[in-house]
Design a protein that fits this description.
Elements: H1 3-10, H2 15-23, E1 25-30, E2 35-37, E3 46-51, E4 54-60, E5 63-70, E6 75-76, H3 79-84, E7 91-94, E8 98-103, H4 105-114, H5 116-142, H6 145-155, H7 159-162, H8 165-172, H9 176-189
Antiparallel strand pairs: 1-8, 2-7, 3-6, 3-8, 4-5, 4-7
Helix pairs in contact: 4-5
C-alpha cells in the first residue's frame, strides 16, 4: 500500500502538507522475525506498513499473548513510548519480510507545529488508534470465541494463511486446541 494511500486513509490532507510529511519518511525493509520493539525498550518512532504483517504481544506465564495484528496500511506504534517516552510493555514482531515507512517522533512533532493539516491528521490518527483499541476490548469482553473467529475470517481471511494458528488463537483469546475445535465445527456446518 502506497504511503499516500496510508496517510489519506487516516485523514486526507492537502498535497502541500502531504509533501511536507512524506519528506520526513524513510523506507526500511526488515526480515521476517525482526522485532521493531522489544518489551522494556523505548521506541518513539512510528512505522507504516507498505508490505508485510506484524503482531504485538506480551509474554505471560512463559507464553506469548498476541493482542494486536497489523497488515498493509496499518501503523506500528508503541503508544506508551510515543506519548510518554517510556519503555513499552509489548514486543512487536514482523511475521513476514516487511517494507515499512519510518517517521521519527521529533520530526512529526515539528510538523504538528508548522502545519495545521498535519496536526489535524495527527489528531485523527490518535482517534483511530483509540477506536481500534476500544473495538478490540469490547469484542473480547462481549463476544464468544466463535463470534470473534467468524469476524476475523469475514474481515481478514488472509490472516489464516499469513499468521501461525497459535498467534491467531492467542489474538482471539483462546487456546490453539479451542481454535481447532471451532474450525472443525464450522467445516462440519458448511
Amino acid at each position: 500500500m502506497d504511503i499516500h494511500e496510508i496517510i489519506n486513509k487516516i485523514y486526507p490532507i492537502p498535497e502541500a502538507s502531504m509533501n511536507k510529511l512524506t519528506k520526513h519518511l524513510s523506507k526500511v525493509t526488515y526480515p521476517k522475525g525482526y522485532h521493531i520493539l522489544e518489551a522494556g525498550k523505548t521506541e518513539t518512532n512510528i512505522f507504516f506498513i507498505e508490505k508485510g504483517i506484524v503482531r504485538a504481544y506480551i509474554p505471560v506465564d512463559g507464553k506469548e499473548v498476541t493482542f494486536w495484528i497489523g497488515k498493509e496500511g496499518a501503523a506500528i506504534v508503541s503508544l506508551k513510548s510515543y506519548v510518554d517516552n517510556q519503555q513499552g510493555y509489548e514486543s512487536m514482531e514482523l511475521m513476514e519480510e516487511s517494507e515499512l515507512y519510518l517517521l521519527k517522533r521529533k520530526d512529526l512533532q515539528e510538523l504538528f507545529k508548522e502545519d495545521i493539516h498535519i496536526a489535524n491528521w495527527g489528531r485523527k490518527f490518535a482517534e483511530s488508534e483509540f477506536m481500534q483499541t476500544e473495538e478490540r476490548l469490547i469484542s473480547l469482553l462481549f463476544t464468544n470465541a466463535s463470534e470473534r473467529y467468524m469476524k476475523l475470517i469475514r474481515n481478514n481471511p488472509e490472516l489464516l494463511q499469513r499468521m501461525p494458528l497459535e498467534c491467531l488463537a492467542s489474538y482471539l483469546g483462546i487456546t490453539p486446541v479451542s481454535l481447532s475445535r471451532i474450525r472443525a465445527k464450522l467445516k462440519r456446518m458448511l
